[in-house]
Write a structure and sequence with these properties.
By secondary structure, this protein is α/β, with parallel strands linked by helices. 45% of the residues lie in helices and 14% in strands. Bound molecules: flavin mononucleotide.
Length: 323
């Protein structure tokens, strides 16, 4: 079984990820947020890949992601990734952002089975590195993936990850587990599951329903509770359950050290204090959504504008949690 960090653009950047790997365990791989490669690109500068660790450069294997719909840009990016030393690339066919859909990329490409297959024909026949896909059930209807998935059997994909929501749903509504089951039947082999694994109980219920799945991708659940991957891994050995993790994760010293270390590492990346504070909020907001969070903290976190304000709020929060 493999636990994979989901790409989280604007949050789980390289600094976040390497800091995370230094403090927590349980992850086997990480998919990076999509690389900023424009359409009709002729040459991809090496600095574009600075956000991704090369094989062997990081404690956790990282796989770069592309968000493209243009065959020639894909081939150019692929060549550059190969020359830079990467051994796998992931194609994003799931992004639900309106701007991305309007450009016919991400989940905006899912209704176009023919175009996806044409691009795959071209890149799979030339690629010397592995290609994996991350998809949703469809842009507007799950029939879009039900049409695509049987065709994917003909390609030498490294892996297929499915987040069982539609693009138009963004992140609302429930994940469609019947849709995931149907997709697995159509593919005839295990698919990597991604979506709403926010606790060990969530994972155990999904594992029970899909015992053949051996790749699990976690995103927001890791931001909310960074101990989640290790708890999932330990459960296989120890048989723990969620009652042993009922405390808020911010009660744990390791999470507090991680946050301080992350801010230290991030300071040099942000020239404006407000940008650093906003980055911190972008992470902590997921932790704040946990039920065991101290009352009112979420709203107060959203109001802070300086690191000094964060330090006072943090002291108060830790005091409250420690009582
Ligand atoms: C802030 C944010 C940024 C995301 N960025 C990407 C991205 O760059 N590429 C991608 O394939 N998915 C991206 N996603 C989708 C996640 O990778 C994942 O599919 C989704 O959050 C569902 O998994 P989860 O419930 O475990 O978070 C993003 C999601 C969020 C919330």
């Amino acid at each position: 079984m493999k636990i994979i960090l989901a790409p989280l653009e604007g949050v789980a950047d390289r600094t976040f990820r390497s800091c995370y790997y230094d403090h927590f365990r349980g992850l086997d791989e990480a998919l990076t947020p999509f690389l900023p490669i424009p359409d009709r690109v002729k040459r991809v500068p090496l600095r574009t890949f600075a956000e991704v660790a090369l094989p062997g450069e990081s404690k956790v294997r990282e796989i770069p992601q592309l968000l493209l719909s243009d065959e020639s840009a894909f081939l150019t990016a692929l060549g550059s990734l190969e020359r830079a030393g990467f051994d796998e690339v992931n194609w994003n066919l799931g992004c639900p952002s309106r701007g991305v859909i309007r450009k016919g990329k991400g989940s905006g490409l899912l209704p176009e089975t023919g175009k996806i297959l044409r691009i795959l024909d071209s890149v799979c026949s030339r690629a010397r590195i592995g290609i994996s896909l991350k998809i949703r059930l469809g842009l507007e209807k799950r029939e879009e993936s039900f049409r695509l998935i049987p065709e994917l059997k003909g390609y030498p994909l490294k892996s297929l990850t499915l987040h069982p929501r539609l693009g138009v749903q963004m992140y609302s509504g429930r994940v469609d587990l019947d849709g995931f089951e149907r997709a697995m039947d159509l593919y005839g082999r295990p698919i990597c599951y991604n979506g709403d694994i926010n606790s060990l109980d969530d994972f155990l219920a999904l594992k029970k329903r899909f015992p053949d799945v051996d790749r699990w991708m976690l995103g927001r659940g890791v931001l909310a509770d960074p101990f989640l991957p290790s708890r999932i891994v330990d459960d296989r050995v120890l048989g723990l359950d969620d009652s042993q993790a009922a405390d808020h994760p911010l009660k744990q010293r390791e999470f507090r050290y991680f946050l301080d270390d992350l801010l230290l590492r991030m300071e040099s990346r942000f020239h404006r204090e407000i940008a650093l504070v906003n980055y911190l909020k972008g992470i902590l907001i997921y932790t704040c959504n946990l039920n065991s969070m101290a009352e009112g903290f979420r709203e107060r976190l959203l109001r802070i504008k300086t690191i000094n304000e964060w330090n006072s709020l943090k002291a108060e929060l830790y005091d409250t949690l420690d009582q």
